[in-house]
Amino acid sequence: xxxxxxxxxxxxxxxxKETLTIGEEALTSLKKRFEAIDRxxxxxxxxxxxxxxxxxxxxxxxxxxxxxxxxxxxxxxxERAYADLFGAESALVRPQITCGTxxxxxxxxxxxxxxxxxxxxxxxxxxxxxxxxxIREQRGSLAEYGVTYRQADLxxxxxxxxxxxxxxxxxxxxxxEIQRSRxxxxxxTLSVEEIGExxxxxxGIKSDVICMVDNCYGEFVETIEPTHVxxxxxxxxxxxxxxxGLAPIGGYIAGKEEYIENAARRLTSPGLGRxxxxxxxxxxxxxxxxxxxxxxxxxxxKGAIFAAEIYGKLGFQCDPKGSDERYDIIQSVTLDTPERLxxxxxxxxxxxxxxxxxxxxxxxxxxxxSDVIMAAGAFVSGSSIELSADxxxxxxxxxxxxxxxxxxxxxxxxxxxxxxxxxxxxLTSQNTSNVL
Length: 436
Ligand SMILES: *Cc1c(COP(=O)(O)O)cnc(C)c1O
Hints:
The protein is α/β, with parallel strands linked by helices. The chain folds into 2 domains: about 5-45 and about 295-435, Aspartate Aminotransferase, domain 1 (Alpha-Beta Complex); about 65-290, 3-Layer(aba) Sandwich (Aspartate Aminotransferase, domain 2), CATH 3.40.640. It is built from 13 helices and 12 strands. It has helices at about 5-10, 15-30, 30-55, 75-85, 100-110, 130-135, 160-170, 190-205, 255-265, 285-315, 340-350, 405-425, 430-435, and strands at about 90-95, 115-120, 150, 175-180, 210-215, 235, 250-255, 315-320, 330-335, 370-375, 390, 400. It has a 7-stranded mixed sheet with strand order 1-7-6-5-4-2-3, with helices on both faces. Strands 8-9-12-11-10 form a 5-stranded antiparallel sheet, covered by helices on one side. Helix 8 (about 190-205) links the parallel strand 4 and strand 5 (about 210-215). The structure holds pyridoxal-5'-phosphate.
């Protein structure tokens, strides 16, 4: 038997010559960008490796503990490595932190007391925090504990409005919650440098404001993290960038010792703090996932830029654009019709290693006022560092797309979306004539 050609393998996945050409055309303009991403990954790989070596990670660190989890040397070394990597005094990296929202909630609730105010300098925070902060009424919210919330909206250009920030800070302001990634909003993602400017500005007005960064989707996109530019705390999810696709659960918080200790006391209890919390069998995946995270993030970034480049050329609005600087791994493409949104998600699903035979369908979701369609065929349920896409079934029918554990897989998934649109007659010759 002779080996099949590249084109034949692609044809085996239903990708025709025209779609392949669209992909290859897009790639020609991305060479320099991909080189820069590879260089960032190289630097971050060395940063991770140094953190492992400085933390004296040994084979025994991989074993884990059960029960109370006292003297878990693997957990302790991993937390030292995270602290080192983030340029922080301390870190909490635990399977008991169930998700990103939980990590952020811990960082917030453990460090605020009744009468304090929490402040967002970059508009409304991520949806799941509404009920934590009490923006939407919810039992157990911060509002119920007498903590107030205030926000300064972004300016018309999507940039922080420093006058509004100055006006918002008052004697009760105790914490600033700064969301790095756009998440699923239409504002631009902040660079680490911009976060540093916001932190300095806030501390210049009131030096005891704790600056906490929601770091979700931003880790390893640059070679520094918000804690390197003055943020007091960063928090995020291990089923996004820093888990490298291997962590099956978990969250992290890194920052000033005092604030991390407060978080540990709230995660377990005062008096026990960080001394308890068995790691069971997850440490190998936490370590190995972190080791792979720079490369995995690079793959996801390449996929996002590739998608933006192709869909931009096909005439769709992409945010960010193919040529824009990037500070997170999220890509949105405005597809204008419900049929295209569904076809895009079907394309992603059909490229999945798990559940590829499933057809995603729009369905109601709690917290959304329209149906939502989601494509995910992930090894870890809900993992959005793996190739995934979703979008609300309403105008302008934008799809949010992210992840990809390897660049070849991200590339194939995106080509599958183009093919899916074409096969359903949802791309006009005007779309493709821009590219071909
Ligand atoms: C994903 C995300 C969160 C919440 O993470 P979950 O793990 O889904 O709870 C918070 N903020 C931003 C910006 C995110 O992207």
